[in-house]
Amino acid sequence: MINPLMDPNVAYVLLVIGLVLGVLALFAPGTGLLEIGALFALVLAGVGAFNMEINLWAVVVLILGVIPFVIALRKWRNWLFLGLAILALIIGSVFMFRNESGGPAVNIGLDIFVSLGSTAVLWVIGRKSLEAIARRPDIDLSRLPGMIGEASTNIHREGSVYVNGEEWSAWSNAPIVAGTRVRVIQRQGLTLEVEPVEE
């Protein structure tokens, strides 16, 4: 019985899945599921690749293809770098495994399909992650003191206020009736000290 892991197409797909899951784990760490999936796919790909002939120059092309991909992620409208990254991925992965005659062992159609699909996934996830990193916080907590809001409940030693589109825990030195306009004096953690606004 032929081991399917020894098929260069299967090993290639497993390798790409492992690499994509590994990159996604870098963008969304924490659960461990992506890391386990990446490790599992890479180990299975390694078992298959262990008995195959590998072109080292193709592996170098694959690694070098990461550089234009990162540049394309950073420069949104520079499609030339994205094209170079896709080309490096396709060429490197087609020629990574050699057949007995020295030609490419991976099916070219499969390679193009998988390369374009994995690049699209990494492109979308990478762009969204970089946008999230570069985005300013919706609420700058240092700007809260001085803001005007409204008491959602009666406030004295505790209560809640609605300030800048958010509900906050609050307290005050003097009793404040629900519905009163209040000014933030200071923030202590996630609790605001407030005072009534004199009309």
Task: Please outline the helices and strands.
Layout: H1 8-27, H2 33-50, E1 53-54, H3 56-64, H4 66-74, H5 79-94, E2 97-98, H6 108-134, E3 148-151, E4 159-163, E5 166-171, E6 181-188, E7 191-196
Parallel strand pairs: 5-7
Antiparallel strand pairs: 1-2, 3-4, 3-6, 4-5, 6-7
Q: What multimeric state do the chains show?
A: single chain
Number of helices: 6
Average predicted local confidence, pLDDT? 80
What topology, given as strand order, has the largest sheet? Answer: 3-4-5-7-6
Task: Give the low-confidence spans.
Answer: none
* CA-atom Rg in angstroms: 28 Å
Task: Describe the protein's architecture and organization.
There is one protein chain. The chain has 199 residues and is of the alpha+beta class. It has two domains: 4-134, no CATH class; 141-196, Beta Barrel (OB fold (Dihydrolipoamide Acetyltransferase, E2P)), CATH 2.40.50.140. 50% of the residues lie in helices and 17% in strands. It has six helices and seven strands. The strands form two sheets. A five-stranded mixed beta barrel has the order 3-4-5-7-6. A hairpin with a 2-residue loop joins strand 6 and strand 7. The longest helix is centred in the middle third of the chain and has 27 residues, at 108-134. The termini are far apart. 25% of the residues are buried. The mean pLDDT is 80.
